User: What shape does this take?
Amino acid sequence: MKDKTDSQLYSDDLDALVQNTHSKDLFRLASARQNALRQTARRPSSMTWLVAATCCCMLAFVLINPRIEPAVVESPITAKKTFEPLANQELEALDDLDFYYWLDIYDAETIASAD
Amino acid sequence: MDAHTTNAKAKLSSTDPLSEGATDALGYSTLEEFLKFIERRAFHMARISTNNVDDAHDIVQDTMYKLVEKYADKAPADWKPLFYTILRSKTTDYYRRNAIRDKVFPWRKPNSNESDDYLEPLINLSTSAGTDDPDSMLVRSERLQQLTSAIKQLPLRQQQAFMFRAWEGLSTLQTATAMGCTEGSVKTHYSRAMKRLRALLGDYYEG
Assistant: This one.
């Protein structure tokens, strides 16, 4: 019983100390409280970290893996340019056919005279 | 409503965080309200333990950070024991750092920036409340100064047992959880603390 009486007296005096905390200490405590609570708002969600980590892993896999060749994209414009010279070459070859006709005739006469 | 029903209802409210009267019994429902409710007392506990205002603020701030970071999702009824567990741990770490520092640098002076001005707000309040008896004002301020000085003289474990049990009003089980020891140890530390305080403060609290 005496313990309770003494502890109550001590507690009452200590409560008076708490009630009359200095204003500069109250300010510092309020500042600490706001800073502590602010950290929950700033912290990104775990899903964001998961997505970021997954993207990094995929990028690293693509860059490091030697078997994966970069895809070559053929655009219709370059394809046309590729085949244009070939098309021109065919026409030129056809033009030359008339030039070599006489060679075929010469060869035939030479063979005939040899016989 | 008789006392027994009232007590039973309060007990149920305090243990069941989802009950209607829980937050009324606790006095807070959000983490911000809880920190506002507890910060001043925690600061004075840390101040008495460390004898240094800046260190006390650091300990309280670290405790708040830890509670918000790790235990914000716990029930409001769990915040107080968790807060004091963290506070006790931070205070113990402070004592260990100081012990190591004193061994490595024994010539360094104790890290204390306490001044007598911390009782000034109490004196000012007594004056503004119209207490015209300066003698009673002087007696009270002296008594308070002796009380805090006596608590500082207690070993750390006895300090914690006294402050958690007598001042904060935690149960033996909650105090044991906060201190990381058994209920029997809490009772022993508390009993020794009261005996020591009574021996040191007998003249100031008689009658």
Observations:
- Chain B has a mean pLDDT of 80.
- The CA atoms of residues 69 and 198 of chain B lie 40 Å apart.
